[in-house]
Amino acid sequence: MALALGSPLLAAAAPSTVEASADSRAQALVARMTLDEKIQMVHSYFGMDSEKLKQPKGALGSAGYVAPIERLGIPAQQIVDAGMGVTNPGGIRKGDFATAMPSGPANAATWNPDLAFANGATMGREAWQQGFNVLLGGGANLHRDPRNGRNFEYAGEDPLLAGIMAGNVIKGVQSEKVVSTLKHFALNDMETRRNFHDALLGEKALHESDLLAFKIAIQTGQPGSVMCSYQKTNGTYGCEHGYLLGEVLKQQWGYPGYVMTDWGGGHSSAKAAMAGLDQQSAGEVFDPEVYFDKPLRADLKAGRVPMAQLDDMVTRILRSFIAVGALDHPPQRQPIDGPAGVATAQRIIEEGAVLLKNTQALLPLQAPKRVVVIGGHADKGVLSGGGSSRIDFTMFGGNAVPGLTPTWWPGPVVYLASAPLAGLKQALPQTQIEFVDGTDPVQAAALAAKADVAIVFATQWAAESVDLPDMDLPDGQDQLIAAVAKANAHTVVVLETNSAVRMPWLNEVGAVLQAWYPGVGGGVGIARVLTGAVSPSGRLPITWPTGLDQLPRPSIPGLGFNPASPSNDIFDYRIEGANVGYKWFAAKGMKPLFPFGHGLSYTTFAYDGLKVTAAGSEVTATFRVRNTGKRQGAAVPQIYVRLPQDHATPVRLAGWSKVALAAGEATTVTVKAEPLALADYDVAAKSWVIPAGEYTVELADSATDVAQKATVVLPRSTLK
Fold it and tell me: For residue 540, which of 414, 308, 661, 700 has the smallest C-alpha distance?
């Protein structure tokens, strides 16, 4: 298998017959609609009981609902949260369950767009089978800080990787005749006081970082809807942002779909509608007013919003439903295929778990006689993130570890019933395996001293609406790991975390596996990686800093549930600008704990024969990849470009390939560099320009592990 990534995205295809038909059909429907029907289309209701109102008649029990217009054959909009799978909050829909997919960074860490598509297709299929035709998923916000409580929903720090992986999830969802959103547009990169804070970033840097991720995700996945963000960007709320919604998204990018608010993101009628907002979400519960009802009617009557604007809003909504097949093929409730979903989730974590360290080939486990498994509720299940994307029920049942705090929003803390302990016992039937919960480090160390191998599962819960206060593992887990490692040099640490954490014990342990939030296939998938049934091929979609001191903002007031000091409601991203993650480290000359793109295997690979050619803005790298080890595995050779001398951004990921090879096998790989990775955004011209000069093309195993280099001289050119 060779997946050549980074092929040019800018060559937009001409509108297809299907797209033209969607436009014309939507326009014809709008021409037949009354004003009341149009207003009905541009605001949804909360789809379940709230403190204010009862669940609307016809709603299934989910995030949102818009009643059908039966005389025109327009089905109801049944809208469900599904960042990690189809949610069923508190079991409101009796008997419904879904596949809990691995977290966004785990998906991104596969560097495998085909798996991302399968991820989305699973969620889309299960949504359709449970009666839903709009899925609130597809996160492309960049990973600017490991403390962001919602990193687990996103796809890492690099706009090319995030855009392609999130875009393929969206494409998979919509292949099942379900509209997918892309969220949260834009710069919603921290959660603290998200309804109030202001994210500051210059126009050029914004286009070259967060907006670039969204641009690539849209070009890749063509989402039916974009969800605008809660926070302000440079002083203006995301769902009233005329520059972001109207000028960039709809005019510059030609986006044909519709923009919906996040739940609680509505602030106005005329200002929002004229800025580019098309649908207000559950305003009767989460906003001060249903702005897109009586206030919008008043604005239409007064001429503050032209009727043509309302027609465009409704046309965009209908067009998206027609384009993905949701209008002609409304969902039909039926049983989902739970085992098929679990199998897909397991494949993703098997490719997305990242082996960070493996001293003296401690892994894979070589038939040890005695193993002690410690902590992390590994006897019960695997951790998942909190908030609207939380999956309460899978085919294996509900929360495997009920009662953990917080039990209130954004909790409860949920462990999926997929126990790594059971997976290890199944994979190692001849091994004596014991479990201890790790609450007593002395007891855990005593058991570890008697074992051939000690495996510590360490967890870090994170959730929507709150950021983590630091990068530390909570609840004394660092002390537990240190005690176990002191007792047994053959200690393996498996991390189930939102993002990077500090590792003060790293030099004392033998191996570290980053398993993210591994999803409902996590117990078996982790065991298969640890025991060598599969060779790890995950690569970091983030840079792993040594600690807070390496971050652009080491100290941020107001983080966590009970902050020592209040937030100042400002997140100044101008500090790093477009130099997010590995670009920040390169610009500052800092060495991270683990670089972006890093990941070990149970075999070894060699890269050679790099040749680079250029034809206009098209740069192509060709090279050979050899499996130099003794077992099958998958390499992820990465192509980076170093821009002409003195450029503010020293290096950018331009493409990659994922290559599965048998022991001793070799293959030739070709990767076309993404032109956007070579270009800068010209604010005055509102276009992308490749500067003239000499570019260094690097063939690498990570952002810092370069195997070969070649140079190419490019003329100045403007991308179409």
Answer: 700
- Dihedral sign from CA coordinates of 55, 57, 60, 64: negative
Q: In Å, what is the CA distance from 295 to each residue of 298, 308, 533, 657?
A: 5, 17, 61, 52
**Token pair for residue 115?**
């798996």
Beta bridge partners of 454: 372, 491
Cα–Cα distance, 413 to 191 (Å, whole number): 18
For residue 718, the surrounding DSSP H or E stretch is strand 717-718
Summarised one tens digit per residue, pLDDT across range 618-639 is 999 999 999 999 999 999 999 9
According to DSSP, residue 708 is labeled: E
Which residues are registered as beta bridge partners of 40? Answer: none
Place of tokens 């096998």: 665
3-state secondary structure of 78: strand
CA 138, 140, 144 angle in degrees (round to 5)?
145
> From the CB of residue 503, how many other CB atoms can be counted at a distance below 10 Å?
24
Query: How does strand 354-358 pair with strand 511-514?
Result: antiparallel
Question: Within 10 Å of residue 304's Cβ, how many Cβ atoms?
Answer: 16
* String of DSSP letters for 243-283: IIIIIIIIIIS---SEEEE-TT----SHHHHHHT--BEESH
Structural tokens at position 390: 């939380």
**Taking each helix axis from N to C terminus, what angle separates 477-487 and 441-449, rounded to the nearest 10 degrees?**
30
3-state class of 210 per DSSP? helix
- Tokens coding 264: 């609680």
What's the rounded Cα separation, in Å, for the pair 649 and 632? 37
DSSP string across 307-341: HHHHHHHHHHHHHHHHHHTTTTS--------HHHH
Structure tokens at 281: 């979400």
pLDDT tens-place string over residues 209-245? 999 999 999 999 999 999 999 999 999 999 999 999 9
Tell me how crowded residue 332 is: count the other CB atoms within 10 A of its CB: 9
Sheet holding 453-459, edge to edge: 354-358, 511-514, 491-496, 453-459, 370-374, 432-436
Q: CA-to-CA distance for 232 and 250, rounded, in angstroms?
A: 19
The rounded distance, in Å, linking the Cα atoms of 286 and 429 is 52
In the numeric block, the tokens 């547009």 are attached to 185
Stated length of the chain: 720
d(CA 381, CA 523) in angstroms, rounded, equals: 7
Rama region for 303: left / alpha / beta (φ>0; ψ in -120 to 50; rest): left
Interval 139-192: pLDDT, tens: 999 999 999 999 999 999 999 999 999 999 999 999 999 999 999 999 999 999
- Give the amino acid at 112: N
- The predicted pLDDT at position 617 comes to 87
The separation between the first and the last C-alpha atoms of the chain, rounded to the nearest angstrom, is 32
Q: CB within 8 A of 261, min separation 6: which ones?
A: 227, 228, 239, 272, 277, 279, 280, 281, 283, 287
- Give the pair of three-digit tokens for residue 25: 């059909």
From its phi and psi, is residue 310 left (phi > 0), alpha (psi between -120 and 50) or beta? alpha
Closest to 216 in 3D by CA, of 138, 296, 150, 270: 138
Helices then strands, each counted (H, E), the chain: 19, 32
Helix axis angle, 338-352 relative to 113-129, nearest 10°?
A: 150
Contact partners, residue 134, CB within 8 Å, separation at least 6: 64, 77, 78, 79, 80, 178, 179, 181, 224, 225, 326
State the pairing for strand pair 236-237/354-358. Answer: unpaired
| Residues 178 and 328 sit within 8 Å (Cβ to Cβ) | no
> What is the biggest distance separating any 2 CA atoms in the chain, rounded to whole angstroms?
80
Q: Is the dihedral of CA 366, 372, 374, 380 positive or negative?
A: positive
